[in-house]
Amino acid sequence: MNQDATIVITGLGLVTPIGIGKGLFWDALLAGRNGIRPISAFDTARYRTHRGGEVQDFDPARYCQRVPPKKIGRGAQLAVAASRLALTDAGVESATFTPARVAVVCGTTMGESPTAEAVDTAIVCGGDDGLEKIAPSFPFQFPSDMIPGSVARELELSGPVMTISTACAAGNYAIGYGADLLRFGSVDMVLAGGSDPLSRVVFTGFNSMLAVAPELCQPFDRNRKGMCVSEGAAMLVLERADSARRRGVEIYAEVTGYGLSNDAHHMTAPHPQGRGAYQAMIRAMEDSRISRDSIDYISAHGTGTPANDKIETLAIKRALGDGAYAIPVSSIKSMLGHTMGAAAAIEAAASALAIRHGVLPPTMHYEEPDPECDLDYVPNQPREKRIGTVLSNSFAFGGNCATLILSRYGA
User: Fold this and answer.
1) Tens place of pLDDT per residue across the chain (411 aa)
2) Partner of 150 at 20 to 30 A CA spacing, among 76, 100, 120, 160?
3) Within this chain, do residues 201 and 220 fall inside the same structural domain, yes or no?
4) Would residue 163 count as lying in a domain?
5) Active-site residue identified among 106, 217, 338, 401
6) 341 with 171: CB under 8 angstroms?
């Protein structure tokens, strides 16, 4: 066990509705680009809303070189692409690490549910020969573990492979678990993150809850109308700092610590006093051995729903005290929408880039302050700021709460 190991991020792979690759993604964030558009993946005519976030111009054949892209689901395709981008960004060549010493840890909310949706559609709408139209590979695409499993097969990695399905907090869970594998000396490198394809099931569910905004996602705004369903993937390369120094590669940030909790309150609603969110933040700071005065920026869960934004604001103030009013908070879901199991991983990547570049991404579409959301939400424009430490929140259905803390390496 190597409890004192410093774990760092050396590679970022992003596949999102506002850009593929860290460069396009970061430029779009700072430009405030909106990735929410009319949905094309399925017919929304019978729904009350019609917009969401889809990854545009995505060709899985560019990234799937060993695993045939038609034999894996879209979630796996997105994860493979993000993983290849992350490894390239980290300067990792096949001979650099022993395959058995590289882990893949991937969070997801819905897994490969579009595969099941396609089967259902064939049965219901396909007539007598509907089932015959289903590709033989479909049953093998569906299990959620096929997402990290496909990454491992594509990249010929034979280390631990883990699926974490703690809904929208899954990306932070995956990064925290990956850091633990490295601290305990179980592996030498981890691909950690999350992936979720756009799902008709989740779009239906959130619409039935009246939780989807008809046009824009407006986190923390007084007139916010809900979240926007989206898709995407992010995978981060984690390794020990001594390994990164030997390889002479850029270090984006240190994974200082993380905290997990559960509201133990309701299947979909947050605890009225933000109990789980508060505990996750406190535990993350304790794990990181930092004080609340050390936090320079908060990457919010910030979904744009009335309850979530109010409760997250309350929990931040409980966890950080009066100092919360001096800490900038922003939500990139205002541009991306909610990418489900990929959200926390995408936000972790954005946080690492914010540390690297000294710029805070904005909360877009912020028009009218809400008295119950009274923090500094970096409205509508990026902000230059030297960042030492970021606290990144992700809160999910089932009460799952996860907070990740990233810090400037060597600060």
Assistant:
1) 444 589 999 999 999 999 999 999 999 999 999 999 999 999 999 999 999 999 999 999 999 999 999 999 999 999 999 999 999 999 998 678 899 999 999 999 988 888 777 777 767 776 666 666 676 776 677 778 899 999 999 999 999 999 999 999 999 999 999 999 999 999 999 999 999 999 999 999 999 999 999 999 999 999 999 999 999 999 999 999 999 999 999 999 999 999 999 988 877 778 888 899 999 999 999 999 999 999 999 999 999 999 999 999 999 999 999 999 999 999 999 999 999 999 999 999 999 999 999 999 999 999 999 999 999 999 999 999 999 999 999 999 888 999 999 999 987
2) 120
3) yes
4) yes
5) 338
6) yes
Query: What does DSSP say about strands 161-164 and 102-107: parallel, antiparallel, or unpaired?
Result: parallel
Q: In CATH, what number is assigned to the domain containing residue 15? A: 3.40.47.10
The verdict on residue 329 lying in a domain is: yes
Do 208 and 319 fall within a single domain?
no
Of 64, 106, 168, 228, the active-site residue reads: 168
Q: Kindly report the pTM of this predicted structure.
A: 0.95
Q: What is the DSSP string of 51-89?
A: EEE---S--GGGT-SSS-GGGS-HHHHHHHHHHHHHHHH
Environment class of 57 (CB within 10 Å of its CB; exposed 0-12, middle 13-18, buried 19+): exposed
Q: Which of 64, 228, 271, 301 is catalytic?
A: 301
- Residue 393 shares a structural domain with residue 301: yes
User: Hey, is 110 helix, strand or coil?
Assistant: coil
Q: Tell me if residue 301 is catalytic.
A: yes
- Per DSSP, what are the bridge partners of residue 255? 406
User: Is 106 in the active site?
Assistant: no
Question: Considering the domain boundaries, does residue 253 fall inside one?
Answer: no
Residue 68 is which amino acid?
A: P
Q: Is residue 1 part of a domain?
A: no
User: Which residue type is seen at 281?
Assistant: M
Domains: count for the chain: 2
> Do residues 78 and 210 share a domain?
yes
Give residue 266's domain range: 258-407
Domain boundary among 191, 220, 247: 247
